[in-house]
Every structure is written in structure tokens, then in C-alpha cells.
Design goal:
497 residues; globular; 2 domains; alpha/beta; Alkaline Phosphatase, subunit A; eight-stranded mixed sheet; 14% strand
């Protein structure tokens, strides 16, 4: 720093405030400006999707091309449901029950691999499409003609937390934005009184924790906000602790200070914080109205299964009805969570039946089957189905054989290990070829052999249906442009209309 500049700076330090930007600008040789440019890039002041300052970080953005859907509902089946017991029947397992698998067995989570284990459930063909669905999901089976079933999904990771992160963010670790965060970053939200990305609580937190709903290096406004529809206070601190008049005065005071600071710094993060306060204030009225079901008919509640005497099913039915209400209000991305059944399923990963497959899968399926089918039927009845994408997915599938440590227990105790080499999920909603089965696993349901896909392809397709080009939706962080699909992924064109 030049001596004259230093002298002038210290002489006037009491009479003025010098921002970091001003200090760096006055430094000689321009070296600090190089550091500032890197800082600006890391904060995404350069290379971000353009947003008008006055409109806020969740302002509606134009898609890259005409969108097929406006909202996404992810029904996350944490723990990895068994595809060969639900949407991918394998008759050969019945023919060779109790025999060793006649092929190389990949490493499993516990490497205690037993004999071939056929599905305990019968499959039925549903609808005009004839899609086979097991007795676990009779209600979803009744919606078969609305489904696009993918039987050739694969995952890179065989452990729950890593696989859950991979499903949500395309990375196996915490710290990267979820697909929900990328969605609101790319499109904003049509409702400025509610979060653009909502996670519905009431179920367990999947292994990997809340970070899988996070915004990573994207601005924090894009992270998933948790709403618990069954609680007296559905969001933390949503109920004011003081009178409205006092709260308004307090917020006005904070707003005055923040805007004074904003005038001196022009920092976008400060403006985002101001708007977050404003949104939080509006949410105090919007959230209680959202979770107030008094205007819903008893027939609608019954359609979802809210009248069930099983607490987990009634709670999940409430989540699904709330998901529809969020779609109606323009929320971009909604995720549901499945609850644990004490003594039957595992906390955080309820579908993870290494033993007691029949008991665990039947409890889980009973919890979600009617509510999800009710959601599809209700969306259709209200004209919302074609503008919504419903995704039913776990982080991986299950093996066609048992685990040896359970082989000599009663048949009802049998379970399956993790299988990331070929498994199923399904989609429903706008822009899809419904009543379709895409891809295939081998005769044992072990490896994907036709139309092999990864979660990168699923993410690319979700963004495509929302009108976003997955290769263009980027964010500059740490000196490089990141995207949800990294350097991978192709839109699954064969399932699109």
C-alpha cells in the first residue's frame, strides 16, 4: 500500500468506514484485486444464473426451454426397498429356490451371502398396460397406467449414507447441493411466502442426516426447509414469541441496519439475508394456513388414508396430502420421509431388511401404498398431475439371495442384503410415457442388462422435465463450475413423450 494512501486511510478512519472492497482497491499493483475476483467467483458473483436484485433469490426464473412440469415430489424410500419383491418379478427365483446363485457374487454390505430366495409375494398385472406389481402395493398397482417403471437403475455406492447422498446430490459426501436445492436455484419459486424446497417431517431422518437436503455451496435460501404437519409448531420458531406490533418494530430496526450495511457493501448475501427475514415473517401466516386441513373433505382425507388407525400410515398420508397442497401453492420441490416401525424396521432406513423381510416390507408398504396412490389420484382429479412429477425411489435394491447368518432361522426371518447393480424405481406425471416399463435386470434381478441407468441420468431427466438443461445449470465454486450431474448424465429420452 502506498504511504500516502496509508496515511490518508488512518487519518480518516474515525470519520468513515472503509469496506474490504475499498481497502483492496487502494492497494498497489492490483494483486489484491485478483484475490477479490476469486472471492467473488466463490460467492457466485460471477457466472451465476442472472436474477434481478429487486426480485430476490427465489424469484421466478425463465426455464431454458418449455417445461413439462412445475413441481417435483420425491417419495424417498430410505433403506432400499426390494425391487424383486415389488416391481420386477423374477419367476426363475422360484424355480431355483435354495440353490447357490450361478454367477459371480459381488461384494455385499456384510458379505454373508446365502442361497436364492424367491419373492414371498404374488405379482398381478394391472391396468391396460399390464404392468406387474406385487401384493405389497395394490393401491399403487391400481395406478399402473400412470406409472413409468424403470427397472435398470444402478448406484455406485453400497452403503446407506453414501448412497443416499448420491441419490440426492450425485455425490457420496455431505456438502453438495441436493437436487431440490438445484431446482430452486435454477427456477426460483412461484410462492414467495413459502420455501421453494420443502422436506416433510414425520418420518425418520434417512442415514446421512439433514445434509442430504442441504444447499451445499449454493446460497442457504435453497436448502430444504422441514415442515412437520403433525406438530403444534410445524416449523421451528414459526410461531411469534411477541406481539405483532413489537415484532414489526424489531424487524424494522434490523432491516434499517441491514440496508445501511447493504448500501456500503452492495453484497448480494446481505440482500439475500434481508429477503430471508421478510420471507420468514410472511411464513408465519402461510405455514399455519398450509397445514390447516379443515377445508379438505372427509372423502379426500380418506382417499389418502388419514383415517388409518396405524399412526405411521396416517402420518404419511398427511405428508402426501400436504405435498399436494404445496404443489397447489407453487412450491418447486417436495420430499416425503417414511417412518420407522419400532421392533420391525430400522431407524433412518426403514426398508433395510437384512432379516425379517416379510414383516418389515409389509409394514412399510402398508404405510406408503394408499397415501401415494391417493396422491396420484388426487393430483389427477384436480388437474395437477400433468404439471407435477412424482418420483418413488430408494438408494439401491436388494439381493436375490439371503444372508447366511439368517439362513438357518425360520423362513419368516429371511432378509436380503444391498444390491446397487440393478434395481427399480418409478416416475409419474407430466411429460412421461405412462404405462411403460424401461430397462431390465437379468433373470435373477441381480444386474441391469438393458437400458442401464445411473442417478446422473435420473437427475438430468428431472431437470429436463422442469425445463432446465443439466449441462447449463452450473454454479462457480472453488474455481470451477459445478453442476448436479457433474460431468455425467443423459436425459432418458425413451421415457419422454
Amino acid at each position: 500500500m502506498k504511504s500516502s494512501t496509508v496515511s490518508h486511510f488512518f487519518q480518516n478512519r474515525r470519520s468513515c468506514t472503509v469496506s474490504r472492497r475499498d481497502l483492496l482497491t487502494r492497494c498497489s499493483m492490483g494483486f489484491p484485486m485478483l484475490g477479490l475476483s476469486a472471492l467473488m467467483a466463490s460467492e457466485n458473483r460471477l457466472g451465476a444464473r442472472p436474477v434481478e436484485k429487486k426480485e430476490g433469490p427465489l424469484a421466478v426464473r425463465a426455464p431454458d426451454f418449455p417445461a413439462k412440469v412445475k413441481s417435483v415430489i420425491l417419495c424417498h424410500m430410505s433403506g432400499g426397498f426390494s425391487h424383486i419383491d415389488s416391481f420386477d418379478p423374477k419367476p426363475r427365483l422360484n424355480q431355483e429356490a435354495g440353490l447357490p446363485l450361478p454367477m459371480k457374487v459381488e461384494r455385499t454390505m456384510f458379505d454373508q451371502n446365502g442361497k436364492i430366495f424367491p419373492s414371498p409375494w404374488k405379482f398381478n398385472n394391472y391396468g391396460e398396460s399390464g404392468i406387474p406389481v406385487s401384493d405389497l402395493f395394490p393401491h399403487i398397482g391400481s395406478c399402473a397406467d400412470d406409472l413409468t417403471v424403470i427397472r435398470s437403475m444402478t448406484a455406485t455406492f453400497n452403503e446407506h449414507a453414501q448412497a443416499n447422498f448420491f441419490l440426492h446430490s450425485g455425490r457420496p459426501l455431505a456438502g453438495f447441493p441436493s437436487v431440490g436445492a438445484w431446482t430452486t436455484y435454477g427456477l426460483g419459486s412461484e410462492n414467495q411466502n413459502l420455501p421453494g424446497f420443502v422436506v416433510l417431517g414425520g418420518g425418520g431422518i434417512p442415514l446421512g442426516g439433514p445434509n442430504m437436503f442441504g444447499s451445499g455451496f449454493l446460497p442457504a435460501v435453497h436448502q430444504g426447509s422441514v415442515i412437520h404437519p403433525g406438530r403444534d409448531e410445524p416449523m421451528v420458531n414459526i410461531q411469534p414469541r411477541e406481539t405483532d406490533q413489537l415484532q414489526r418494530k424489531r424487524l424494522a430496526f434490523v432491516d434499517d441496519i441491514d440496508r445501511s450495511f447493504l448500501e456500503k457493501t452492495s453484497h448480494p448475501q446481505v440482500e439475500a439475508a434481508i429477503r430471508n427475514y421478510e420471507t420468514a415473517y410472511r411464513m408465519q401466516a402461510a405455514v399455519p394456513e398450509l397445514v390447516d386441513f379443515s377445508g379438505e373433505s372427509e372423502a379426500t382425507k380418506k382417499l389418502y388414508g388419514m383415517d388409518s388407525t396405524v399412526p405411521q400410515k396416517a402420518a404419511y398420508a398427511t405428508q402426501c396430502l400436504l405435498a399436494r397442497r404445496l404443489v397447489e401453492r407453487g412450491v418447486r420441490f417436495i420430499e416425503t420421509t417414511i417412518a420407522n416401525h419400532p421392533g420391525i424396521t430400522n431407524v433412518g432406513n426403514p426398508w433395510d431388511q437384512h432379516q425379517r423381510l416379510v414383516e418389515g416390507h409389509e409394514a412399510n408398504a402398508f404405510e406408503v401404498d394408499q397415501p401415494i396412490a391417493g396422491l396420484i389420484k388426487d393430483l389427477k382429479a384436480r388437474g395437477l398431475f400433468e404439471q407435477t412429477l412424482v418420483v418413488f425411489a430408494g438408494e439401491f435394491g436388494r439381493t436375490p439371495f439371503t444372508q447366511t447368518n439368517f439362513d438357518f432361522q425360520p423362513k419368516g426371518q429371511y432378509g436380503r442384503d444391498h444390491n446397487p447393480w440393478g434395481f427399480s424405481l418409478w416416475l409419474a406425471g407430466g411429460g412421461l410415457r405412462s404405462g411403460l416399463i424401461y430397462g431390465a435386470t437379468d433373470e435373477y434381478g441381480y444386474h441391469a442388462i438393458e437400458g442401464r441407468l445411473t442417478f446422473y441420468d435420473l437427475h438430468a431427466t428431472i431437470l429436463h422435465l422442469l425445463g432446465l438443461d443439466h449441462e447449463k445449470l452450473t454454479y462457480r465454486f472453488g474455481g470451477r463450475d459445478f453442476r448436479l450431474t457433474d460431468v455425467h448424465g443423459n436425459v432418458i429420452q425413451d421415457i419422454l413423450v
